[in-house]
Every structure is written in C-alpha cells, then in structure tokens.
Design a protein that fits this description.
With about 70 residues, this protein is α+β, with helices and mostly antiparallel strands. The chain is about 35% helix and about 10% strand. The chain starts with 8 loop residues before the first helix and ends in a 14-residue tail after the last strand.
Length: about 70
Amino acid sequence: MDYFPVIEADDYKDDEEFKYLYAHLQNQDFQGSEKEYQQLILIADQYFIRDGLFYKIAIPRNKRVNRVYP
C-alpha cells in the first residue's frame, strides 16, 4: 500500500509556487519580473536541492521542536 506519490524533478518544474525557485537553485536561471526575483533572493538561502529533490531548511523555533525533518 503506497499512499505517497513519487516526487520527481519534473514535479517541481511544473509547480506554480516553486518552479522559479527550483530553476534558480538548479542552474541560476530566472524568468520572471524584477519584483519576483527580489522575493526569490530573500528566500533562496532557505532551500537546497539534493539528488534532484527540493528541501527546505527549517530552524526549530521552540524547545519542543528538537528534531529536523526533510
């Protein structure tokens, strides 16, 4: 029983919310407006790509959150 879909690089490229960020991190490519580029630069350091998968770096904000999850 496989409940979770398999995520591939093409899924990120087609996603409306993350396609610009993924392209920027993958090959420093950006196709959008200047305002969108400025917003992207502000959050780009919080994400990384490893083996084609997209991850967000999150720092725990309180004592109870002491584990990091992908």
